Amino acid sequence: MSRQISVHPLPALFEPDDVVGGIAVVVDILRATTTITHALANGAGYIIPCGTVEQALDIRNDLPAGTCLLGGERGGIRIDGFDLSNSPDDYGPNAVRGKTIGFTTTNGTRALIRAEKADHVLIGAFVNLSAVAEQLRNSELPVHIVCAGTNGQITGEDVLYAGALVEQLVESSAEGFDTTDSAQMAFNHWRQESGRGSSEVLEAALRRSRGGRNLIELGYDRDITTAAKTDSVSLVGTLNANGKITMSAGFDQVE
Ligand code: MLT
Known about the structure:
The chain has helices at residues 32-41, 53-62, 93-96, 108-114, 129-137, 156-171, 181-193, 199-208, 210-218, 221-227; strands at residues 3-8, 23-27, 46-49, 68-72, 100-104, 120-124, 143-147, 177-179, 236-239, 245-248. By secondary structure, it is an alpha/beta fold. The chain has a single domain (3-247), classed as Alpha-Beta Complex (putative 2-phosphosulfolactate phosphatase). Strands 8-1-7-2-6-9-10 form a seven-stranded mixed beta sheet, sandwiched between helices. A three-stranded parallel beta sheet has the order 3-5-4, with helices on both faces. The longest helix has 16 residues, at 156-171. The two termini are 32 Å apart. Bound molecules: D-malate. D-malate binds at residues 28, 30-32, 73, 76, 86, 105-108, 148.
């Protein structure tokens, strides 16, 4: 039987048990998963996705002073009392190296928490597209690409990424894949909007998406440029069973 690739265009369109026994790739291109990947690439110790602001505040209170930063957004902007917004720009090496980050966003962290029953949960973004594809090729488990969307609405930027990842898997692998209809639709969307284009073509497509338009309105244009830099990062974040996101060197990592 060939290996299945499913795309879930919204977290509400799958049940948590559906991903048991598979690998989930969670994506919120603008901006949660792009930002998490940047933070890890810049040396953050680990990131704890939190469903609520209160949960993030509790994490900081429980850790030694100066070791934990809080990051994320509500309505796209930094949360009162938090150290960092949801902009990758805030997560430079000087800010995050060695720190624990309690992180909560409107849609991205919720999608991550919904996918946590998968055997492996990877953090996907265009900035590490090839690295994620490589990890998936090294496994035989079914693939679930989970799009965060925005407030219960499907967003073009996440579906674009899903399509790009489907393309990488289907075209560069000798094994047969069985793509669901939604995976095929994501692939078609990617091919139509941006497929095989330059970062500039991808950036233009991201700007046309719902998330892109929101960020332009909020003055975060630069984050769209950052999110479109395909393969600027060679590592992959993974959500571990202990609820912490760390860099994944492979599937045998335990912490
Ligand atoms: C989210 O999780 O809803 C997004 O990442 C929002 C944002 O771009 O800040």
